[in-house]
Structures are given as structure tokens and as C-alpha cells.
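[Discussion] Sanity-checking designs against the backbone

I'm trying to build intuition for which residues belong where. Below is a C-alpha cell string of 275 positions. I'd appreciate it if someone posts a full sequence so I can compare it with mine line by line.
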């Protein structure tokens, strides 16, 4: 697959998901590695989801196992509120449990997805591939710290989503957009961490390229909201979206003509109009 970038241009052509899928399936090594990651991610996510839902159910079992007496009008109001809160809690807690489990799977499998991202970018860019930041102990510690920050951000977003989800319509839309951009951040983390980007710079990139970031995150965000099936569907598509995000990130940055490796001199790597 050849790149169509135009150095110095203002905007980069968007690489469709179908093109990313074709690129992935036409590369045997990338495909085999992706299939292995599907199995690993599914097992880690399922295990984390099972443990988290068990914890939620145990903490609330006393409340939801005791039905309010509904022999009077006030009793029926309490009973209907109890039923509503029970099913609403079940739905929201499963979404929260999924994202907490997925964050754990994301953290534990990150080195394997970083390798997939690097291999995909090398094959896509060919001779124009820009080498990653040097592999040093300090760099590894920075990567771990940045990964922890993204994980904590995910927990904060999950708690925020849990609170605003009770606002009719507006709350649900806000949760959806939050998850779209957080999903995009997770996929872009694999390629930007190799460049030693800080979390603030990653978020700045998402803000500058918000339309394309939304395109990267919208399908994973939709998948994450499908009960039960999200565990397997997300694991199935995660390697594909890692490659998809990597190719588009590379395409956009190469259009700008900006070196993206963080440990290059600041005057060479960051211009005032770039993230």
C-alpha cells in the first residue's frame, strides 16, 4: 500500500476503514499478530468484566434483593422507583464494568499493540518511515507514567459518564461523545507513545483534528454500548482500529511535514501551529 501524502499540504486525505482493513488483511505477519491479540484482549476483558460485575452485584445485593412494600399509592411510587433504578443500574453498571475491564486489558496488552502499530507504520511508510524515539529506561518509565495517566483519565470519564447519563437525552449524547474521543485517544496512544508524546500533546492533537478523531472513535464507542457482545466485538476490532488510527495519524503528520518524535530538538519537532 502506497502513501498518497503531500508534504506541506494543509489537510491530509482520510484513509477509510475499508482501506485500513485491506491493508491489514494483505499483510500476513500483521494479520497473524492481530488474531493473537484478539484472543488475548478478549480473555483479559472477559475476566475483568466478570470480576467487576461480581463486585458491583455484591455491593448492591442487599438493596436490590429487598422489594419495597407496595400496598399504598406511596408504596407503589417507591416500588416503581426501585424497579426503574434496578434496571437502570444494571445497564449503566455493565457499561462501566466493561470500560474498567477494557482499561485493564488495554494496559496489560499495550506493549503488544505498540508492536502492531510500529509494524503497520513501517510497512505503510516504507523508506519514509520516521524512526521512533530511542528505547531507553527513562523512555520506558515515561511510557508507563503516560499509560497510567490515560488509565486514570478513563476512570474519571467513566465516573463522569455515570453521573451525566441520568440527564435525559443530553446526558446520553454527552456520554457518547466522551467515549468517542476517549476511544480515539486509546488507539492513538500506541503510535504517539512510541514518539514520546505527553498526554497533553495527545489531547491537543485530538482537539486540532477533532473531526478525524471522532471518525476513529465513533465505531468503537458504538460497539462498547452493545451489552454482552461488546466484550467480544471490541476485542475483535481492536487490532484493526489500532492499524486504522496508526495509518491516519501517520498520514496527517506527514502531510504537515512535521517530525513527530518528541525527543528531537523542540525547534525542529514542534511549530507554533502544530500540537
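Best answer:
Here's mine. Compare freely.
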Amino acid at each position: 500500500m502506497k502513501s498518497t501524502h503531500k508534504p506541506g499540504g494543509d489537510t491530509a486525505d482520510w484513509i477509510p476503514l475499508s482501506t485500513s482493513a485491506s491493508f491489514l488483511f494483505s499483510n500476513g505477519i500483521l494479520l497473524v499478530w492481530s488474531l493473537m491479540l484478539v484472543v488475548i484482549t478478549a480473555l483479559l476483558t472477559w475476566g475483568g468484566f466478570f470480576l467487576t460485575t461480581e463486585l458491583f452485584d455484591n455491593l448492591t445485593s442487599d438493596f436490590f434483593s429487598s422489594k419495597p412494600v407496595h400496598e399504598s399509592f406511596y408504596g407503589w411510587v417507591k416500588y416503581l422507583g426501585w424497579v426503574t433504578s434496578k434496571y437502570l443500574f444494571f445497564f449503566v453498571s455493565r457499561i462501566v464494568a466493561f470500560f474498567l475491564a477494557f482499561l485493564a486489558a488495554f494496559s496489560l496488552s499495550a506493549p503488544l499493540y505498540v508492536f502492531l502499530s510500529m509494524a503497520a507504520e513501517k510497512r505503510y511508510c516504507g523508506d519514509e518511515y520516521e524512526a521512533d524515539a530511542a528505547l531507553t529506561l527513562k523512555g520506558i518509565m515515561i511510557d508507563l507514567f503516560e499509560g497510567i495517566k490515560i488509565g486514570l483519565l478513563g476512570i474519571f470519564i467513566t465516573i463522569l459518564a455515570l453521573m451525566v447519563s441520568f440527564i435525559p437525552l443530553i446526558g446520553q449524547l454527552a456520554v457518547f461523545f466522551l467515549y468517542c474521543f476517549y476511544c480515539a485517544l486509546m488507539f492513538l496512544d500506541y503510535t504517539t507513545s512510541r514518539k514520546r508524546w505527553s498526554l497533553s500533546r495527545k489531547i491537543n492533537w485530538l482537539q486540532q483534528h477533532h473531526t478525524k478523531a471522532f471518525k476513529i472513535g465513533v465505531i468503537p464507542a458504538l460497539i462498547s454500548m452493545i451489552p454482552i457482545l461488546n466484550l467480544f466485538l471490541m476485542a475483535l476490532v481492536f487490532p484493526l482500529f489500532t492499524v486504522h488510527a496508526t495509518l491516519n495519524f501517520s498520514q496527517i503528520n506527514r502531510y504537515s511535514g512535521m517530525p513527530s518524535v518528541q525527543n528531537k530538538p523542540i525547534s525542529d519537532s514542534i511549530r507554533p501551529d502544530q500540537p
